[in-house]
UniProtKB/TrEMBL annotation:
The lineage of its organism: Bacteria, Pseudomonadati, Pseudomonadota, Betaproteobacteria, Burkholderiales. This is Taurine dioxygenase, alpha-ketoglutarate-dependent. InterPro entries: AlphaKG_dependent_hydroxylases, TauD-like_sf, TauD/TfdA-like. It comes from the Bacteria. GO terms for biological process: antibiotic biosynthetic process. The keyword Oxidoreductase applies.
Length: 324
């Protein structure tokens, strides 16, 4: 990883973290300054840098805590979003602040753009490191423009023409219950949400279980820069992403159509696992990883930069907020 000094002024210093072509701008205070003392400069720098780098890391400022993190995100002027139609377990911590995905510490979370498995997604995602893990626990990122550029053009065209279908089965002790995903126990409210968001739904087992299907994009054009980005979670939701032992055990207890989640092309045909392996390989070849420091804040343009999570040891607390 290269670290380059790119600029200094009387309030903030700048560095660039770069690895495998993905870059993050690091902003740090000159002297003993808290975030509030240099908010105007931070807003201006972040607005200028996010479309160039895709991500900005605030490092060396005083600890914020959950409430301070919420105030910081709010101060940038974009509405905070709730975690609607989520795919992973999280807990609400403070107003618009959530825990990061609550998967076991020994599990990787592959690269993905937040909620790119839907037709509605946050423009930005914010991370705050409240407690850095004793070992591991990075939030690796990858430039979605680079991912798109490095994928085989034939693969990109294949996905762009056919798009991606996400099939989800909720509950049954295997995945999130539908009540948690939709934030309600009322089936008519679930149906209303699905209709409004072009999600096909099907009640199973006398209404106890729910299956949804939604066809979404494989790529997007960034509304500000006009650049094309790879923007989907076909590789993450597909059954091939499960460890072989887990996959085999799961298929022993449920039929293919009852898997908690899976992906297909938009016409319902299977996606060749080799295509998904190529996508995963390109993500690995474009990833930037750095160790969290306590009180770090990472701001990502959600279209330009994907993120993931490395396994870790010891206590780790990283908070998340999303903005429109």
């Amino acid at each position: 990883m290269d670290t380059l000094i790119s600029g200094i002024d009387e309030v903030l210093s700048e560095q660039v973290l770069e690895q495998n072509g993905s870059r993050v701008l690091v902003l740090s205070p000159q002297g003993a300054l808290n975030v509030d003392a240099c908010l105007p400069q931070l807003r201006e720098r972040v607005a200028r840098a996010r479309t160039t780098y895709g991500g900005v890391l605030l490092r060396g400022f005083d600890a914020l805590g959950a409430a301070g993190f919420d105030r910081l995100v709010t101060s940038f002027g974009q509405p905070l979003l709730t975690y609607e139609f989520g795919s992973t377990p999280r807990s609400k911590v403070e107003k618009g602040v959530y825990s990061s995905t609550e998967y076991p510490a020994d599990q990787w979370i592959d690269q993905h753009n937040e909620q790119s498995y839907t037709l509605n997604w946050p423009a930005s995602i914010w991370f705050y490191c409240d407690i850095a893990a004793e070992q591991g626990g990075a939030t690796p990122v990858a430039d979605s423009r680079l991912v798109y550029e490095r994928l085989d053009p034939a693969l990109r065209r294949h996905f762009a023409e056919r798009q991606v279908m996400y099939v989800r089965n909720y509950g049954n002790g295997l995945d999130l219950p539908w009540e948690q995903v939709f934030g309600t126990g009322e089936r008519d409210q679930v149906e209303q949400y699905c209709r409004a968001n072009r999600i096909d739904y099907e009640w199973l087992d006398d209404g106890e279980a729910l299956r949804t299907r939604q066809v979404c994009q494989s790529e997007l054009r960034h509304p500000v820069t006009g650049e094309t980005v790879w923007f989907n979670q076909a590789h993450l939701f597909h059954v091939s992403n499960l460890p072989p032992v887990v996959r085999e055990a799961l298929l022993e207890v449920v039929d293919d159509d009852r898997l908690p989640r899976n992906t297909f092309f938009g016409d319902g045909t299977s996606i060749d696992a080799a295509m998904l392996d190529e996508i995963r390989a390109v993500y690995r070849e474009t990833t930037l990883s750095f160790a969290w420091q306590a009180a770090d804040t990472l701001i990502l343009d959600n279209l330009l930069m994907s993120h993931g999570r490395a396994p870790f040891a010891g206590k780790r607390r990283v908070l998340v907020a999303m903005t429109a």
